[in-house]
Amino acid sequence: MREHSPDSPADEAPSEALVGNPSPLESPDISSYQNFGDAAKAVLKFLQDSLGFDLWMVTRTVEDNWIILETETRGSEYTIQAGDVFRWSASFCARMVAGQGPCIAPDSEAVPVYQEAPIAQQLTIGAYVGVPLRYKDGKLFGTLCAIHPEPMSAQLLLYQEPLLKLLARLLCSLLDMELNNVHQIRRAERAEVEAMTDGLTTLYNRRGWNQLLNAEEERCRQYGYSACIVALDLDNLKQINDTHGHAAGDTLLQKTAHVLKQATRDKDVVARLGGDEFAVLGVEIDPTAAHALSLRLQAALEAAQISASLGLALRPPNSSLHQAWEAADQAMYTHKQHRKQNPPCG
């Protein structure tokens, strides 16, 4: 996690007209935005222009990761940007969502639960607003929130609370519609790379893998999805080819492909990258489920009497799937070396 520290104060406050004579603000028209990210940016800009605050954010929570998806900043007090990750349990927003603190704190120092939050020791926060972003089923996606280094006008902020909640609901509606279409988008992407398959196993080849990996990485960045990669290498393909012929080796490759497909979900991506190398991309999968996937693959291969080395890597929120692939490959190599040095008994 990047460490953030203030550089120099920037106390630009809302205009006197807004503070002295607050009036209802018209909600921006986000119906024309087909993309959640673009709509979020438009909302953040509107809120900063209207209400001030040095930093506005749309965030995503995944376990104890608080992922910054979009930001709108001014001044030099805060250096937070999209892609940064904080601890959710350390944030004001975690306390707000839990009902321990108010959605609007014009003077956050007057709210003990916020002053006790660890993030208050990292950042100078004089004022805070935040509202939850929830899926249609009520589960938490993240938050729409803002912070400012100095206290703000209570009259201005409290008067506009209904607008903040309305914008949050509009964003959530767009998010729900967009996420409901993700599985159809994936189907279209996979139909597009249907020709990019390995002729022997019918799995995606390296070209198809790369294209689908890039598409999923874009979704991970936009929505804060969790994902993982399992790299797999057969242990004895060369020996089987040399001893029993290439037909036997081809049968092993086809058998491996079948086992991997049976042990994964429809939305996961399984590819043969070349030779005896395979890879699995687990999409929308948390760390617990990712480890379960790796164990399930290992058990399925062992049940089929296929000897293979596996390496699992999660995509960190502030990293990329390509870095996770490199880490999974390194973990697989380490596993292979361990297996060579510690062959199974019997």
Can you give a write-up of this model?
This protein is of the alpha+beta class. The chain has 2 domains: 16-180, 2-Layer Sandwich (Beta-Lactamase); 182-341, Alpha-Beta Plaits (2-Layer Sandwich). The chain has helices at residues 16-20, 36-51, 92-97, 112-115, 119-122, 154-159, 161-180, 182-192, 206-223, 237-244, 246-263, 287-303, 321-341, and strands at residues 55-62, 65-73, 85-87, 104-105, 127-134, 140-148, 227-234, 269-274, 277-283, 308-314. The strands form 2 sheets. A 6-stranded antiparallel sheet has the order 3-2-1-6-5-4. Strands 8-9-7-10 form a 4-stranded antiparallel sheet, sandwiched between helices. Strand 8 and strand 9 (277-283) form a beta hairpin. The longest helix is centred in the last third of the chain and has 21 residues, at 321-341. The chain starts with 15 loop residues before the first helix and ends in a 5-residue tail after the last helix.
